[in-house]
């Protein structure tokens, strides 16, 4: 029996840039009515996930920044894991030397060295506004950083940046891809999976009673770490290959289908 249901947002609960479908909203309410705890887990900033909780009309714990922050939609901080300042500075130097975009977050504010096409794409996709502070401005804000993110021009360039970062920082920090153009960096051990474990202990819920659903590389660990992992029909090949349960696509309300198939 599923007692805790954890979902990714983009490409899972809703199509990027779209609103949550009525079918998906209804499924969430049915679940909560049945006594299932519902949690959002996203790479987004906390403030960018709040409107999603508002659309659902429920107060929920939100795992944001790929697991670095767990905070309720009412504002209660349940856990926070920030990157070591020296790792933040090393990543900033690494990306500036290569003239690759890198953005930082502190105090739930988005900071960028300069506003280019990638930043505008990110802002419009997640409905957030960046503060342009220059590379030195990023360095000045190296404390209390949950994650750093690079927006690439395309998926091929993302692969190049991930490979270069793995070579240089592998084993020192968490490195993942959350969307075709996004590579993300967190403290070692930080992931959606590690955040779920913290919440499961808090709620006294066994691992086999947890369902996690997602579509991207940064969802892989959480999907494979829980008792019931579900891949979206539009999931990346690695997620589908690792998951015995595959629901319909996001466009076809695969989220709601998973709720009725595996929970209700």
Topology (elements, then pairings):
Elements: E1 4-7, H1 22-33, E2 37-41, H2 46-56, E3 61-64, E4 69-72, E5 77-80, H3 85-97, E6 103-106, E7 109-112, H4 117-126, E8 131-132, H5 134-140, E9 148-151, H6 155-169, E10 173-179, E11 182-187, H7 192-203, E12 210-214, H8 220-225, E13 228-231, H9 237-242, E14 245-246, H10 254-262
Helix pairs in contact: 1-10
Notable features of this structure?
single chain, 264 residues, alpha/beta, eight-stranded mixed beta sheet, six-stranded mixed beta sheet, 14 strands
How does this model look, in words?
This protein is an alpha/beta fold and 264 residues long. The protein is 38% helix and 22% strand. The protein has 10 helices and 14 strands. The chain has helices at residues 22-33, 46-56, 85-97, 117-126, 134-140, 155-169, 192-203, 220-225, 237-242, 254-262, and strands spanning 4-7, 37-41, 61-64, 69-72, 77-80, 103-106, 109-112, 131-132, 148-151, 173-179, 182-187, 210-214, 228-231, 245-246. The strands form 2 sheets. An 8-stranded mixed sheet has the order 5-4-3-2-1-12-13-14, with helices on both faces. Strands 8-7-6-9-11-10 form a 6-stranded mixed sheet. Helix 1 runs parallel beside helix 10. The longest helix is centred in the middle third of the chain and has 15 residues, at 155-169. The chain is globular and about 50 Å long. The mean pLDDT is 96.
